[in-house]
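Q: Given only this backbone (335 positions), what sequence would you predict?
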């Protein structure tokens, strides 16, 4: 640890006023030195050129050492202390499950480059803001599964999010299955607040669990569900069929979102429904949810103090002894 730190404070700071004596002493020393040395007027200094000695030049070191000794001892008298802070953080976190639609319609290009890529990016930004929460990830299309269980390792969650792509599941939109998979993971959680954020751009048309049934299960286990309908109004360029060799054929298709169903799910569970018609709107929705679901954090700050005056006292004595030693040896002058 260095001699000085930004966490340094003084018990007796008034002693530091004495440091103002140093420039006064310097002025006094300069004027006294001028009076002590006699002056001799000569017509030409050529004879004295190059006659100054190294010893003579080093005489200025003596008053500097004395000033440093005085300054160090004054700081020691002010009694510097180093403040060591310890923070004990207790967070009453929230368990959050992100449920994301991976049906082919999420490749629609009314968002740039498409709905899925924007949804992934905004979700990762949201994860970054939830420092103390456990977060999990479920995905669904015509079927559903848990991509990532609840974890505080947000790097892992973001890694799974970034790797999401359409086509890894049978196509379709099984909203009930997606919600049920997250409820199944959250039901055993012992935290007070359990939240699902379900994002979709379509109408439920697959799966053997009805969305209403999944919502009832969420309500039973005190799980709040926020639903997000993502997609612009009217028509959008989206996949309309599959190519034989893989990939999709794109064309204009009507944006259809079962908003009433999503409202009912959120209403039944005490959540809220949002509609995102563009990227900025989706960012604002996640920000609203972030504000609505606040994590309770208790921070206890413990302060410990370390006495540091001895460092400056020791340094002052070194300067003083060095000044005395040099004055009486190598830099000794005749009276």
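A: Predicted residues:
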């Amino acid at each position: 640890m260095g001699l000085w730190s930004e966490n340094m404070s003084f018990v007796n700071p008034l002693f530091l006023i004495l440091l103002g004596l140093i420039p006064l002493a310097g002025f006094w020393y300069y004027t006294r030195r001028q009076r002590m040395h006699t002056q001799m007027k000569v017509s030409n200094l050529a004879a004295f050129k190059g006659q100054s000695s190294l010893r003579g030049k080093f005489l200025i070191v003596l008053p500097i050492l004395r000033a440093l000794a005085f300054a160090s001892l004054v700081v020691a008298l002010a009694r510097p202390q180093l403040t060591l802070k310890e923070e004990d953080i207790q967070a009453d976190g929230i368990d959050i499950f992100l449920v994301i639609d991976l049906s082919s319609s999420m490749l629609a290009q009314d968002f740039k480059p498409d709905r899925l890529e924007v949804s992934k990016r905004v979700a990762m930004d949201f994860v970054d803001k939830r420092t103390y929460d456990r977060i999990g990830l479920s995905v669904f299309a015509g079927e559903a599964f848990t991509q990532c269980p609840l974890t505080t390792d947000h790097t892992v969650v973001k890694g799974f999010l970034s790797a999401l792509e359409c086509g890894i599941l049978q196509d379709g939109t099984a909203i009930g299955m997606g919600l049920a998979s997250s409820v199944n993971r959250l039901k055993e959680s012992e935290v007070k607040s359990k939240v699902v954020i379900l994002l979709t751009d379509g109408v439920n048309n697959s799966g053997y669990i009805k969305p209403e049934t999944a919502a009832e299960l969420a309500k039973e286990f005190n799980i709040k569900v926020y639903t997000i309908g993502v997609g612009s109004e009217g028509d959008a360029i989206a996949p309309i069929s599959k190519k034989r060799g893989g990939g999709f054929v794109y064309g204009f298709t009507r944006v259809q979102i079962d908003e009433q169903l999503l409202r009912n799910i959120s209403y039944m569970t005490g959540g809220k429904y949002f509609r995102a018609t563009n990227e900025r709107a989706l960012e604002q929705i996640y920000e609203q949810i972030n504000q609505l679901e606040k994590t309770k954090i208790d921070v206890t700050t413990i302060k410990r103090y370390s006495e540091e005056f001895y460092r400056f006292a020791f340094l002052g004595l070194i300067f003083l002894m060095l000044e005395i030693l040099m004055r009486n040896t190598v830099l000794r002058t005749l009276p």
